[in-house]
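quick one, 308 residues, struct below
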Amino acid sequence: MSEITASLVKELRELTGAGMMDCKKALAETKADLEAAVDWLRKKGLSAAAKKSGRQAAEGLVGMSCEGSKGALVEVNAETDFVGRNEQFQAFVKDVAKLAIGAQGDIEALKKATYPGSNKTVEEQLTHLIATIGENMSLRRVAAVEVSPGVVVPYMHSATAPGLGRIGVLVALESAAPADKLEALGKQIAMHIAANNPASLTVAELDPAAVERERAIFKDQALASGKPAEFVDKMIEGRLRKFYEEVVLEEQAFIMDGKTPVKEIIATQAKDLGQPIKLVGFVRFGLGEGIEKVQTDFAAEVAAQLKS
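---
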């Protein structure tokens, strides 16, 4: 059995945030195996990693990975943007993005996958990272795309490091056209998606409830205008077309010229290359989107603690 030294106890405390006596007991139970001791504390609920799980994590990184005609995006959240610059955290996000291709968009399968160079799962490695860095973290979401024949084109906006950043986009183009031409087109479309954040690829793929909500609003506006009833339906349809142009990728004006619909840009490129090109899908992850960030008053928090 290895000796349980003061420095080993100190290292375990720094990794887990657990009490000194608990760390000594964990090392004794695991024969001074540091990694096993971390797991022992976690199983007993004594690791601070478990206590951090209630803290909001809306920062972090989006990671992307592509292998030929396959690609994946992941979002891993942390509490502060400082962690996004941490090398350990960045390495974790890169590794998980690579594993995500095999998980095919299944987040539970990804969590259970074996983390590279260890005998831990991705989920266990994340817990270990929480204890090491000292912030709550979460693997929030994953998506994967695949196309054949054709290319999956990645684009990272506001990149922190290669394949890591705040807005990640994957574009899947199905075509037998030359890969370099498809990649150039896909890059421009991906940049457009990063900037315009379309809600869907086509009108048919829009959420029907969202369309009906807009239709109801436009109807009320049309009726309130005082125009004759025979014009109301035309007004509604005209405003719906405008709505589609704002939120549907194929209908949006291409960011490069500000006027040509994206679907026409693709059709023109297909004609020029002499091969059909089909935009079969896209994924866009914006870091922290959809998370309602808690606004805290630090001065009020300190005052409350002084009163307690």
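Residues 229-247 form the longest helix (19 residues).
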